[in-house]
Amino acid sequence: MARSSTSSSSEVDEDISPNINVKFETDEAKFSLQPHLFEPTIIKKGSSSSSDSESQADEEGSNSSADESRLDNLEWCKCGHCQMMDRSDECVCCQEIPEMLSLNEEVTIIKKIKDPLTCITDNPAFTSVCLDMFVLRTAWYQYRQEYDNPFEGPDNQRNRHIAYRQLARFGWGVLGRHVRVALPSCAVSCIRAHFPPPGPEDDHVYVGFKPASDEDD
After folding, report:
1. Cα three-residue angle 157-182-184, rounded to 5 degrees
2. In whole angstroms, what is the distance from residue 89 CA to residue 81 CA?
């Protein structure tokens, strides 16, 4: 399957793909929870601190290799709708994200859908929140009112930008100013397909996900 970008000389898309940057509503929200942040470390008897460090380094190296392997195949996709992305941290399926699974389960119950939803893009709420032109237009007006320097650009680029924000709000609620989440590849690909850039897609370069640390450097 083709990658989402191919030519370095092509137009660069400045829509902030899964780059979500939203204000905190309270001071308490400034500190986001991280997995296993407060769990105690188990140290086996007879093990030295150096061996622990080596084991941790080996584990981190293994995880890094596993992440990079996602750029070579689509084995990580469980929903069947993902596409190859340019960065390993963008290569994530909706079935790997608890927030997306919760949204599918919630809508299945509320809408009394008989069969379980296997992809967030099959979720009727995703269609309404992220793909409906009138919903996106309304969200854009609110965005312009909230920010002094709102994102500007062509209609297709602006719609993608707002659709990404809509999905992040829909799934994660309010995120911090420097808290970014990588949206599932299937959803990003679906949004790009609904609001494509003008001209051949192969001639277009999407910016994609950029962690906050990339901009801080």
Report:
1. 80
2. 17
